[in-house]
Amino acid sequence: MLEKSVFTNKKEIINFVKEKYGINVTNIKIINRGSANIYSLNEDEYVLKEFQSKYTKDEIEKEITIINHLKKDGIKVPSYIKTINDTYYSLYKDKVIIIQKFIEGYTLNRNEGNYEQTIECAKVYGMIVKSLENLDILLPLNDLSYLFSKEIFEKSIEKHQELLKVINDKDDEETLKIKRDLEEKINMIKNISKENIFIDTKKLIIKNTHGDFNVLQFIYKNNHINSVIDFVSACKMPVVWELIRSYSYIDKDVKNGIFNLDTFTDYIKEFNKYVKLNDYDLKYMLYIYLIQLLSSTYGYKEYINNENIELLEFAHFRTNICKYLFNNAENISTRLLENIKK
Q1: Closest CA to 190 of 162, 217, 216, 158
Q2: Contact at 8 Å (CB) between 70 and 134?
Q3: Which residues of the chain have pLDDT under 70?
Q4: pLDDT digits (tens, 9 = 90+) for 228-242
Q5: What stretches of the chain show up as alpha helix (H) in DSSP?
Q6: What does DSSP say about strands 37-41 and 28-31: parallel, antiparallel, or unpaired?
Q7: pTM of this prediction?
């Protein structure tokens, strides 16, 4: 949920920007995008971004370092404006504030990308991961190993069962659909646990990466990516997780949770031109994504508590992916191992 802005009115923003940046603001518009309070300044000349309170100045400094690094390698990223004190950010009422140049273009919703845009997504991700190999700061490690244990599987089942208890006495059409989804997810988790599908994340290719790379972080111009934004979640992690997740978010053919295997194979091939995946990556990437999605109740919980229809639709989408991968992961992995040239 978007936090309330620390700015109470436009005059306060005008005074802040003048004092910290020496910029005269004549026009302000609210931009409804993402999880931050964002304002367009001076008819889209600049963008002011007020980060959520959970983000510290150290995390924003990390993002700025990453963006400046990627820019040197020709990757299209935002351009931050320095304050009059020669810093890329400032603090106001305990919130981190940045100003960047406005990025011309438009955004796509999830699963609106055509084939060319889907493959471009893999190319840009490969370029980013390749560039970040030489990053001169250490990023936090997220090796995903916490997902793979009997204990975690059991806790995931319990989370889903708790939601079933909450809606047990309801029988409207939407609730019945939620019940079916939750029950199917429980059965899939039980089967995976029974089959002892536990992944050794140390065998995966782990590199510096965006942390939340997907189509919702792109600004397009003339049908091509004009900028990749929001590196605040950057970390070191198995690249195949973001690789398969980013594919599932962009390809228009995945709207119902079913992969276009020709496009998906081309997607992995494109990324592999920049960062070579090993056999373990190709064999288990689908299982990594499947298990991560199965463990999450995101969307269902939010709908049950607050009747958030948009997040419920997202939850159904992810469960459809789970069902597809559960039934097809082994065959798709075999196809990848046979077709991806290392």
Answers
A1: 158
A2: no
A3: 1, 34-35, 341-342
A4: 999 999 999 999 999
A5: 10-21, 57-72, 115-131, 150-166, 173-194, 239-250, 261-272, 279-295, 300-306, 309-339
A6: antiparallel
A7: 0.93
